[in-house]
Hints:
By secondary structure, the chain is of the alpha+beta class. Helices cover 35% and strands 26% of the residues.
Amino acid sequence: MRFMILVKATRDSEAGVMPSEQLLAEMGRFNEELVKAGVMLAGEGLHPSAKGARVRFCGPDRKVIDGPFAETKELVAGFWLWQCASLQEAIGWVKRCPNPMPGESEIEIRQVFEAADFGEAFTPELRQQEDRLRAELAGKASGA
């Protein structure tokens, strides 16, 4: 199972306060553990929402909303993509994670949908398309 691990933003991360050298080193060691255990597939920190945008959909209409966004507790400051056997395993890894922010912080764990989760709506043609796209992405990643 794949899980998206979402590091929630804080007032400091939204203000652009960068992590300390100590926190970067601790996170580096934690990421090494994840990679060696075969858990980590990807992971990155994100710039504050002031440097981002949202696109709101209403039928055929699109509206661009520039950041920053008001509700800090609803924002994401970084993420990992992990491969774990279960939600319990992902929780166990998150509990070992260094606190990603000074003070209080929160990390959310969400399971990623797999093709089988969509049932019959995910037709053989759609599966072939998905497989082709994943192979193309893998080829681009290995060539980078």
